[in-house]
Amino acid sequence: MKQESLKSFYHRSGAFILLFGGSLLATAVSFFPSLGTLWAAWQTPEYSHGMLIPVIALLIGSHELAKKKPLILPSWSGIPVILIGYACFAVSQLSAFEPPAHYGLLFCIFGITLSFFGRQTTRTLLPAFAYLIFAIPLPRLIQVALTAKLQILSTTTGVFVLQILNIPVFQDGNIIDLGTEKLQVVEACSGLRYMFPLLSFGFLVAFLFDGAMWKRAAIFLSVFPLTLGMNALRIALAGILVNAWGSGMAEGLVHEFQGWAVFLLCLGILLAETWVLSQIGKGRGKLRLDYFSVPAGPFFDGSLNTRRASIAAFTVCAILAAVSVFSSLNERQEIIPARIPFLSFPLALGEWRGQQEILDPLIVETLQATDYWNASYKREGDETPVSLFMAYYASQRTGAAAHSPSNCIPGSGWRIVQSDIHPVALDHMSIPVTRIVIQKDSAKLLVYYWFDQRGRIINEQYGAKWYLLVDSITKKRTDGAIIRVMTPISEAEDISTGDARLSDFLRGMYPATRNFIPE
């Protein structure tokens, strides 16, 4: 009888492990291309910590299981979660945008855990699942907007520190002018290379801290001001060194050393904050460093039992894996329409005569555009110019995409004083443009811009991203352009005069773009 029970136990356990492992394997096969892009993201400076997160999450999960020993009760609620994960995967495959697939993979693992181990086990593993989120890169749109805002904020704070130290300094957007030398705060110095790894570290410390919830929340939330403050301090330090010993102190090995030193200092401050909080109040708390060891003892209360929910989950994963492999063998090809290069764009537009202007190579590299046009136009007898800039992207699948000028204008030292949606009446139609008034000292510019995307005129960045997703699925296209026109407004002029000037220019310019931006 005892031998028969043991045989039955091994039979049940073997079936459970086989089905569970098969579900994970099927999911890995489906999401294999997305795992490759995730690995590639972990090679970048912002997410280089990502490869450690799954290992640490596994340690957190195993310790939580060994500590709480949940009862295994497979749940049918895992099936819809798995389907949500594969729906995200389908959106990613149809649109060729990676973020949905990354989150879909996490949904699938979560759903498989529910289907095989049940709600009690899944609740126990929630800290590990939450920690895995820090391994997933932010969508490109959010990262670009966040980078631009942190750049200007870090520069402003760094300049403030230099002014406190009585160092003569002038700020022009993201440029720090020290008189004899100028420092430019580039995207890499925005602070995101500190913030992303520090957020994951802050979450880990907050979880391991065995203290009151408000203390744990304080540890995690303090990462934001700590990152911004220390990055500004680093910029100020670079300004001090450059002011004393020249521009070489903000380049090469010295610059890298400063970056690592400030990052390690951030870690030290976060740990010091944790120690201070551990000395406050009755439930002082301490760090549970035993979580970095291999846990001992059984993980579950009861045996591994295969239920119908587990069999259904395996079946769903196997079928969807087969469908995904078949679809990958018949991969949709993106349509990139033929077009005329901007090199042939006219310099004569009605009464307007233009002169082409070449952009700085660094700006061209940052744009990552397939083609661009930059020119200044004037009417005869009118010395006030209109500047036209167009950037075209044959494909916006891989991160190179049109983005709003509102993100980068503050970095050039200009301040947005007015912003609205403005309809411009042309001969046979009206186009809605984003209209902004920007100012730097006494200089003032009126700017119109819009996204010209696959026959749509879109004046808002998030709307452009939404239709980019829709059109990539329905039209197999992600091409598009950003168009910006601007003109200076003199002190003697009213804004309405600038509106009239840009409207007159658009009547001749907009029809000409139809030959160069595919509809």
Which regions contain 5 or more consecutive residues with pLDDT less than 50? 1-10
The portion of residues forming beta strands comes to 15-25%
The number of helical segments is: 17
Mean pLDDT: 85
Total tally of structural domains: 3
Give the tally of β-strands: 12
Radius of gyration: 28 Å
Quaternary organization: single chain
Which range best describes the helical content: under 10%, 10-25%, 25-40%, 40-55%, 55-70% or over 70%? 40-55%
Distance between the termini: 77 Å
Shape call: flat
Main sheet overview? 9 strands, antiparallel
Structural class: alpha+beta
Order of helices and strands: HHHHHHHHEEEHHHHHEEHEEHEEEEHEH
Give a structural overview.
The radius of gyration is 28 Å and the shape is flat. The strands form two sheets. Strands 4, 5, 6, 7, 8, 9, 10, 11 and 12 form a nine-stranded antiparallel β-sheet that branches. Mean pLDDT is 85; it is low at 1-10. The chain folds into three domains: 2-137 and 302-329, no CATH class; 140-290, no CATH class; 342-513. The protein contains 17 helices and twelve strands. The longest helix has 29 residues, at 2-30. The chain is an alpha+beta fold and 519 residues long. Helix 4 runs antiparallel to helix 5 and helix 9 (192-208) runs antiparallel to helix 10 (213-221). It has helices at 2-30, 32-41, 53-68, 78-95, 99-117, 119-124, 126-132, 140-164, 192-208, 213-221, 223-245, 252-278, 308-329, 361-367, 405-408, 461-474, 495-513; strands at 170-172, 175-177, 182-184, 348-349, 352-356, 371-379, 386-393, 415-425, 430-440, 443-453, 456-458, 480-488. 52% of the residues lie in helices and 15% in strands. A hairpin with a 2-residue loop joins strand 9 (430-440) and strand 10 (443-453).
